[in-house]
Amino acid sequence: MTADRNPEQRVMPTLRMTDYARSKQFYVDALGFQVDWEHRFEPGFPVFAQVSRDGMAFFLTEHTGDCSVGGLVHLYVPDVDQWFDEFQRKGVRVQEPPNEGLPGLRSMTLLDPDGNKLHICTRWQTGGDKASRPSHLRQVAGSPEWQLVADSVLLEPACSRRVEDCSVDVGSRDCRRRCDPLHCY
User: Fold this and answer.
1) Against a cut of 0.70, is the pTM above it?
2) What are the start-end ranges of the E strands in 20-136?
3) What pLDDT digit, counting tens, does each position of 59-85 carry?
């Protein structure tokens, strides 16, 4: 079944879950995955299942010997901001909203009910053609740097100052940047 749905995926991650009904509700109802199949050796035994969405699949297991809770999976999607908007509409709690914290990626992080991390990412490359770049980024003319675009207005480029070194009060009228614990954007 995996070969039919995901012909290019050659590695299958597995995440540990402790309550299949709760995990199924999260992955299917909240995140929009589908259950491809589920298996139990006997009724009442732990579940081993496969979920998929948009050509990506992974296993969910209640079997204690398969792996520990607290795993991490990176899901690469064409536009992380579309996924973020969908999750916002559905009321899904996003631990870390879309950001450019990792080079070459715009990504966000969610936690499933068992504390497994889902790092949802969009790849982008300096100098790539427009079709390969998310719509919220624009390359600075003559530079390998990128700037955020909002409502067709170019925002200030990221600065390299650490938040504690910034002379502007974050959130004040003069601050047009958003910050993470280490840097301003």
Assistant:
1) no
2) 34-39, 48-53, 56-61, 72-76, 96-99, 105-111, 117-123
3) 999 999 999 999 999 999 999 999 999
